[in-house]
Amino acid sequence: MPDQLEELVELRIKVLRSANGLPEDADLSRIKEQSRRYFREGFEKDSFAVFFAYEGSEVVGCGGVSCFDLMPTCDFPSGKAAYIMNMYTEPAYRRRGIASALLERIVGECRSRGIEKITLEATDMGRPLYEKHGFVSAGHEMVLPER
Prior knowledge:
This protein is α+β, with helices and mostly antiparallel strands. It is built from four helices and six strands, in the order H-H-E-E-E-H-E-H-E-E.
């Protein structure tokens, strides 16, 4: 389990506040508690991976991926799938390629695990980044087609 568990939980709260337009005083204590549990269990089961971007010793961005099995289909015979989540870059560090580099690492991790289906939910701000990396709209989510 990464030493940065608490930092990851705080970044998760920042993601939710930003994506949902929540005020700083919104009570997210239950989500914080459940996120901590989710990350801890994901690290123990090796079903969650996270990548951080640093400026010196300060975390300025992160991105995570949850790996899981689906019922195999003709399009995804292995049934191995992943959901990219918790992509966040501190506002002062945006537009510097940080999110792009994180996304490349995450997709590489997925490919190294033999994952065939990679999905995510994009905000309006993040959509151009994901499209640049080959993701396409699929209802309320985006999916990276198999190459």
